[in-house]
Specification:
elongated, about 35% helix, 7-stranded mixed beta sheet, alpha+beta
């Protein structure tokens, strides 16, 4: 392009020279002196054009340098933005135990290999006797803080009364892990919802340097109402479900019975909408730290829970709920969808606990919401 431009200028100059000579003599021959003056003028114009070209070349050079600097700054900003979103991904290490803060029913165990890859096992509890399991292998992309896989191994494990394990519904899945600060997001083609894993109690406490010990000054919860089954179910949920969450001061369930079939005393059937809420005490307020919903059918034998059939999450929810509740499904859905009544029931469970132990607690609070005054 540069040679063509100079050639174009030369040709233009020659044309200008010819026209100048022709014009200067009115289309006639001119003297050598007159011709020389015209040539000198054209040469000056040509020199000016060359200077303009050199200036333009310098401008282009400076513009290129500026673009390079801008690109470097942009790359730096993108890199810093990625680190801000994903955390320090240069040394991703998710080794250890994790629990899901969304479904409250999934746990993850991760082991880091010498090559930097991870072997990950995820358990998702469907009921006391059944759980889904994923076995995943992969390596995090340090630039994005993600681990993408297309060869996850999925299966359903069912346990009988003797603890024997039956494996079914095996298939290959795809999914992604994403580092999100001190948490890990997980999505999988077979999982009914996204999980947001947090460090388990021992892992989080060890990272904080307190050795994993959590001491609560609050008395344990126990149901003192008149229902013959709520106390049994509440105690079972505290021991078997609440214990899977991060350490907390007190777990107070919220239980609404849908129906009871006690025609067989060796297998009493209790359908209900079962919730647990885990709180830490802050002044006179119980602040909810975690919790979960476990609607389903509880089997009670000799005053103890013998099994618990929990409704599935996500896309399998309605089919599972209809199967478990049968002709009680509409009644269950009416109860389950009534947030106002459930909150009133929840507040009453807390209030009964506070009154029983004469505690100086006046409110409870969910994260991001205003405190709620307890009923008198």
């Amino acid at each position: 392009m540069r040679k063509k431009s100079l050639k174009l200028v030369t040709v233009t100059a020659c044309m200008m020279l010819g026209m100048s000579l022709f014009t200067a003599c009115g289309g006639k021959d001119m003297s050598a002196e007159e011709a020389g003056a015209v040539v000198s003028e054209v040469k000056e114009d040509l020199d000016d054009d060359k200077e303009d070209i050199e200036d333009a070349k310098e401008d282009v050079k400076e513009a290129k340098e500026e673009v390079k600097e801008n690109l470097k700054e942009a790359e730096k900003e993108v890199s810093e933005a990625v680190k801000e979103v994903t955390g320090d991904t240069e040394a991703v290490d998710i080794s250890g135990s994790w629990r899901d803060g969304v479904s409250s029913r999934a746990g993850m165990e991760a082991t880091k290999n010498d090559d930097g890859s991870f072997d990950i096992i995820i358990h998702w509890g469907g009921s006391v006797s059944e759980a889904a399991e994923w076995v995943i292998h992969g390596t995090f992309d340090s630039a994005t803080g993600t681990l993408t896989y297309d060869n996850g191994s999925y299966a359903i494990h069912t346990y009988d009364e003797d603890g024997n394990d039956t494996v079914s519904d095996e298939e290959t899945t795809t999914g992604t892990f994403v580092i999100d600060g001190d948490k890990v997001k997980w999505q999988d083609s077979k999982a009914s919802s996204e999980c947001l894993f947090e460090r388990g109690v021992d892992e989080a406490s060890a990272a904080a340097g307190d050795g994993g010990e959590h001491i609560s000054t609050l008395p344990d919860y126990s149901y003192k109402g008149g229902d013959p089954y709520i106390g049994t179910i509440a105690q079972f949920m505290i021991e078997n479900m609440a214990s899977g969450y991060e350490a907390h001061d007190i777990c107070i369930p919220c239980i609404t019975i849908v129906d009871v079939d006690d025609s067989n005393p060796d297998d009493v059937l209790v359908w209900g909408d079962f919730w647990i809420y885990n709180y830490n005490l802050n002044g006179d307020t119980l602040e909810c730290e975690s919790g979960g919903n476990y609607p389903g059918l509880v089997h009670v034998q000799n005053g103890l829970v013998s099994s618990f059939d929990v409704v599935a999450d996500g896309g399998d929810y309605e089919e599972s709920a209809r199967e478990i509740f049968g002709d009680r499904y509409d009644k269950f859905e009416s109860i389950h969808s009534d947030d106002t009544t459930r909150e009133a029931t929840r507040a009453q469970f807390i209030s009964d606990y506070v009154k029983e132990h004469s505690l100086d607690i006046t409110k409870y609070k969910d994260y991001g919401w205003d405190p709620v005054e307890l009923p008198q």
